[in-house]
Amino acid sequence: MKEASSRVEAASRTFSNSLEAISKSKKSKIILALDLDHRRDTTKLLGDAKALVESTSDYICAVKINFHLILPLSLTEISSLNESITRNGIISIADIKLNDINNTNRIATEYLWDAGFSGVIVNPFVGFNGALDVVYRRAHELGKGVITLAYMSHKGADEGFGLELSNRITIFDEFLRRAKKWGSDAVILGTTRPEKIAIARKFLGKKIKIICPGTGAQGGDATASIAAGADYLIFGRAIVDDPNPKNSARQISRSLALKAKS
């Protein structure tokens, strides 16, 4: 029994270890949000997504794929995109904020694993038993990562994550507890709230990584977030919408490296 438990624990760290190794190798804490804007003609969408990965791969450690691509592209095309991501020495995260019963969650994530994703973002609000239990179990058997929401970056996040419960803790506090209890590989926490990042870092320790969106278009502070304990920063529009995404990714990566040294 102890040996089996050790194997599960080792598998559950594969995602975090891979991400950390890539980050060190590329000297980058950047996760690229591959959020291409809506278009009626999607025939070039896959090619454009692959080109973005190819041009920025030297300066990022992972790619986050949201409904911007998961909806318009087929599963075969998503698999092809993930193959391209892997060839460029990085890994991909499915950002679907999964929030359903266990059978739906199981089937959804099996398709994601088949398509080559290394991790998935889920919503802890739905609970563990009969919901996310199957996701954690299967993901960690395969060495995949489960990332839970802790506090999103948009202004209205206070309306949900900031709600106080009857025992005077907030939804945010409870989601941190769930991340630790369930064995999440990472949490999502907006750069727009560095004070929350500091709380999460102290509570979660170093084992559970903190991934932070919200820098750039949403006004989050990358420097304050890293100082507070962020492990990785998600950048989307600042790179994707730039006429020269390679240069933008390079400049952001170098700026973060310089700030980390100062």
CATH superfamily: Aldolase class I
How many extended strands? 8
Mean pLDDT: 92
The total number of structural domains is: 1
Count of alpha/pi helices: 13
Please give the CATH architecture.
Answer: Alpha-Beta Barrel
Described by strand count, sense and barrel closure, the largest sheet is: 8 strands, parallel, barrel
Radius of gyration: 18 Å
Label the structural class.
alpha/beta
Outline the low-pLDDT stretches: 1-12
Percent helix, as a range, is 40-55%
Strand and helix order: HHEHEHHEHEHEHHEHEHEHH
Spatial strand order of the main sheet: 1-2-3-4-5-6-7-8
State the separation between the terminal residues, measured CA to CA: 47 Å
Approximate shape = globular
Residues in β-strands, percent:
5-15%
CATH class: Alpha Beta
CATH topology: TIM Barrel
